[in-house]
Each structure stands twice: as C-alpha cells, then as structure tokens.
Amino acid sequence: MTEEWRRSIEKRLQSLELRDAVDEVHRLNVEDRLSGIEEALKWLVQVILGALVTGAIAYLIAGGVALPGKA
C-alpha cells in the first residue's frame, strides 16, 4: 500500500507542477496582451487629445471667439 500511495502522491505532484507551468505561460501571455492594449490606448488618447487641441486652435484662428466691444 505504501508504494501505491507514493505513486498516487507523485502523480498528483506532477499534475500540480504541470498545471503551474501552464498557468505561468498563460499569465505571461495575458501580461503581453495587456501591455499591447495599454500601448494602443495610450496612442488613442494622444490622437484624440491632439485632435481636440487642433480643433480648438482652428476655431480660434477662424474667429470663433467674439470679443466684446470689437466689431
């Protein structure tokens, strides 16, 4: 019975080690994908803010702000 118990424990240990290795690879893949998403969002925010600033400057240059007393 002790030999059977030892084999059972070894099998469970191997299963846990394999699951841990798979989980580690999965975590690394998720980390890489999240980094890519963060980079894409950073550039998207920069493009949107740049467009808003450019639009505001174009509006001001085109005379979009009327100053009181200046006709």
UniProtKB/TrEMBL annotation:
It comes from Psychromarinibacter sediminicola. The chain crosses the membrane at residues 43-67. This is Pseudouridine synthase. Keywords: Membrane, Transmembrane, Transmembrane helix.
